[in-house]
Sequence to fold (288 residues):
Amino acid sequence: MAKLQANTLQNFYNEKLEQGRVDGKGGLSTRMVRYMHAIIRQAMQQAVKEGLLGRNVADATNPPVIKNKQMRPLAETELLDFLELETVRTDRLLTAYLLAATTGMRRGELLGLCWDCVDLERGVVTVQRQLLVLNSGLILDETTKTKSGKRSINMTDDAIRELKAHRKRQLQGRLLLGEAYQDNSLVFCKEDGSLLRPEEFTKRFQRHLVNAGLPKVRLHDLRHTHATLLLQRGIPAKLVQERLGHSSITMTLDLYSHVTPEMAKLAAESLNGLLAKRKNPAKSQGEE
Fold:
């Protein structure tokens, strides 16, 4: 390890990006190489901590940067316009759209949600599974994207009401299909109970947007919409982080830095009139 140089590591990353795949068909993804860098950096950092190395040469490299797709959260009026569309109101996935916008759940989390994780009495949904797309097909995985992704989220009254109606419709459809129904206990699935492909979910959502003349955003942008609306209302970033299942509050603040100026303004406005209350304590207590 003492002989390892930053340029050696950098060449390793470059080679993996260009021709790293086992099948020889091109290089590894930027994300995969970033994972490799994270593991190497962490191992070398431990060596520095134990006195085996004088410095961590991984810090002197330039690993590839993951370019996140541009987020475009819907404005509150746009979201309301979408949810009030007649075609959306009659879509059997209406509740899924609503839950995405009011809980911030990821697409895979929504499609992997089972009824045993929905408490309609308490108004809480628990995220503990996700739907994964593999080469072999769709699987319902008993894990979440991250450790912090396993979480419980309080639902809005609208979401609870729509989920109850959705459950009733689903049970009626199950009775009609009888033995042809595939009982996977999924909340959101195809009419016969089978797993719903994520891209099909997204395409349905975007068709509604186009028909309504709204911006054609990604389904994932409903998650961003949820976070943005909460932060704009002055909800603490820590609570938003927990609802989204982010591993750290830093990630939440970095993603939604565009909302920070509005949060700062709200913080200042909340202290307006503070000195006036000090000068007129009786009036501030509601006395004449």
